[in-house]
Fold this sequence. Notes:
By secondary structure, the chain is α+β, with helices and mostly antiparallel strands. The protein has helices at 131-143, 150-159, and strands at residues 16-18, 23-27, 36-42, 51-53, 57-64, 67-71, 94-96, 101-104, 110-113, 120-127, 162-164.
Amino acid sequence: MCAMTHGLVLSPGSGRRTGTSGMTLKVGADVSARWSVFEADVEPGFDVGAHLHDEAEELFYILDGELDLLAFEPRIRASGDWRAWESGTGHKVVRGGPGSMMYVPSGCPHAFANPGSVPARMLFLAAPAGHELYIREIADILDAPGPPDQRAIAEARIRHGIHQLAPRKPGD
């Protein structure tokens, strides 16, 4: 980690784009030990799939468009469509638009998907820093020629303390 004595100012559109993942790294472990920040473009039909992190906390803030959002432990962790999940206290998936925010503590099942016909855009923070290593690894696997290597994806998730509870679906 770099010891910085100055802050960081980025112009709109700047940062490091991660393959075709739609993620642009704004601040990562090379700048901060505490968190990584991304701007994410979420294409119509994209579904990250319900998952949880052993240690990471995340925060999602919608800038444009709409996303279906989940951040609770469901009564039953059905492996199919997480959008039908409900918590023991009656929480359900929420559709959020610009200004909506989702906070996810470590160990909490969560997901987001773009149900609309236009791209959505969000600011995404992960703590501690270093989530960009996982994003890069997954992007490299998904951007490789041919069908995605599901075993490599599963191994990357395990290395980064991520447990997939319901399948991920790329955009159309």
